[in-house]
Specification:
Blueprint lengths: L1 E3 L9 E3 L14 H13 L2 E5 L3 H9 L3 E6 L2 H9 L6 E4 L21 H4 L1 H4 L7 E4 L4 H14 L10 E4 L14
Parallel strand pairs: 3-4, 3-6, 4-5, 6-7
Antiparallel strand pairs: 1-2
Helix pairs in contact: 1-2
């Protein structure tokens, strides 16, 4: 659950409380992730997410004023919509039939994965403060976040966006990490 914040003038903004948080999912967020993400989202005026989930519920909890997100699972989008404020905008990234966690069941369909990566940002004329990547094609979506922010004029260091990538691990590409 969230408690109303006495610190922020905006009455929509709330403080995340891990001990009363009732929306834990099995999507891979640990308690320290939840706390950090809530801290980041609490300060953000706008958030875009590739892949909806517990992070979406945290954004709703802390009262992010401008939110948009995309997912490849229509049923999951409906679930997120039911637990989120009306001002949150959701899109379906139609990549064909999906299995668990929105994974495509048919990888060779003539559907364009670019629809998932780029299409949801085509109608967004303003950059987001935070781009959260926790869905399909993580590296490509992270780069699209930077490109979108840049194309909307967010190029100086003071106004640069934060691009987060959740639970992406590649054995080969990650071999030098932590050394």
């Amino acid at each position: 659950m969230c408690a109303h914040s006495g610190v922020n003038d905006d009455s929509r903004r709330k403080i995340f409380n891990l001990t009363t948080w009732g929306n834990k999912t099995t999507g891979g967020l640990f308690d320290l992730d939840r706390i950090k993400l809530a801290e980041i989202y609490q300060k953000a005026e706008s958030v875009f997410e590739w892949g909806l989930g517990e992070s979406t519920f945290i954004a709703a909890c802390v009262g992010v004023p401008r939110y948009a997100g995309i997912d490849s699972d229509a049923v999951w989008i409906q679930s997120a919509r039911e637990k989120s404020p009306d001002l949150f905008r959701f899109q379906l990234g139609d990549i064909g039939p999906t299995g668990s966690w929105g994974r495509p069941e048919k990888n060779r369909l003539p559907k364009s994965y670019l629809n998932y990566q780029f299409a949801p940002l085509l109608s967004e004329n303003n950059a987001f403060d935070v781009y959260m990547v926790d869905g399909r094609m993580r590296p490509a979506c992270a780069l699209v976040g930077f490109l979108h922010a840049s194309s909307c004029g967010r190029t100086d260091e003071e106004r640069s966006p934060l691009v987060l990538v959740h639970d992406y691990f590649d054995e080969g590409k990650s071999s030098a990490c932590g050394r």
